Amino acid sequence: MSQTANFQRSTWSSRWAFILVTIGSAVGLGNIWKFPYMAGSQGGSAFVLVYLVCVLLIGLPLLMAEIMIGRRGRGNPVSAMLKVAEEGGRCSGWGLVGWVGIVGALLILSFYSVVAGWIVDYLFKALSGLRLENAEAAANRFKALLADPLQMMLCHTLFLALTVGVVARGVIAGIEVANRIMMPGLFLILALLTVWGGIAGDMPAAWDFMFAFKPEAITPAVILAAVGHAFFSLSLGMGAIMAYGSYLDRQSSIAGTSLWVALAGTLVGVLAGLAIFSLTFAYGLEPAAGPGLILQALPLAFSHMPGGQWFGVFFFLLVLFAAWTSAISLLEPFVAWLTERMRLRRPVAAWGTGLAVWWLGIGVCLSFNRWSGHTLFGLNLFELLDFMTSRIMMPLSGLAIAIFVGWIMTRAQVLDEMQLSGLPFKAWYLVLRYLAPLGILLVFAHALGWLAWLGWLA
Length: 458
Ligand code: TRP
What we know:
Blueprint: H1 15-26, H2 29-41, H3 45-73, H4 77-87, H5 95-127, H6 135-146, H7 149-168, H8 171-200, H9 203-211, H10 220-233, H11 240-245, H12 254-282, H13 293-303, H14 308-341, H15 346-367, H16 381-408, H17 411-418, H18 422-447, H19 450-453
Helix pairs in contact: 1-8, 1-12, 1-14, 2-10, 2-12, 3-4, 3-9, 3-10, 3-12, 3-16, 3-18, 4-5, 5-7, 5-14, 5-15, 5-16, 6-13, 7-8, 7-14, 7-15, 8-12, 8-14, 9-12, 10-18, 13-14, 14-15, 16-18
The structure holds tryptophan.
């Protein structure tokens, strides 16, 4: 690959490599930590069903759109949007969408790294043989971590350094090699854990909880939560997929690749859910425990399992790998911009950006304890960053991307880059022109509370 040539962008060594890294970006804390707790507290199977439909109807088409823009523009999200807009004779202001993405990605990374730091902490705990007697002990353990800013900062620093280290080595040398080792390992560990869930856990109950058809439980709130989560779990709207797509060669089929990514990502989420819920039910734990579901309930389950210590170690390793590959994709877009636009050397760009994200993350660590009293609109720093990115920036830039491909890019441009025809193209194009913008607008309006004000959603 031509990393030495200045202006020629390097490409992934194979289509399979691209699929692996994109799966690596999509599958993360969102699938393994957030998906089970959201499903657990949002009506179980109702949430799962709507989530799956959303992934198929909005997520998949947007995934294809982002890869396409990245490959067409052959650059970081800002210059890719700019180039594609200018090529079609459109306003260059569309580069702004790329900006919202790369800045949003860094904001997400600052707290994503702190949450991943919790996983690092629990990995250490599992390695040193943590045993929890009951649910109360598990809750206290988690509370103790939140009350210990230094420990959180240490783990956050460790995780971020791992992430920056990979990005600093460059796309081919760092990201691809890391994903090649990590993704198959992730699937293997997950498969093992799910088999274990089948042996030691209550798999029928987990299956029923996740897949029993309960149409009456599908409320507007569940639908909107599921749309939002489909977005987050596929890494959409923040330029991450665009940045990866820019390294994709012209021969690979975007539709086929996206299908693989959405399928594999969903499979990981479903497997993780089955494993987690079967253990949760077998040990009499509460599926609606909220964000603490994994960090409170699972160590408890592991404590009462023969050989549970090593299962704990395996499990936290799995989550850590998944979070790592996602974090890499959150850092890459801005680093790509710095190297391409500002001509910074990659290690300088990566470590410099890492330092800024690290600082913000330190604030996030403090927002759980010393600074918990400092709030804006009633939200502490952690909640504020999450709110700004998930509820505002992600839907907004996803909406813009759908409009960009559906209405701004010329049809000729889209046809040429997608190499898709017939019914699949028509369906995809229609979704991007009408369904996706409308769906996202609904989520966005809900996030801002407009619909609630109107009294549509109580
Ligand atoms: N999709 C990842 C997860 O589920 C998180 C993530 C990585 C992400 N890159 C992203 C979310 C870009 C939004 C945008 O954990």
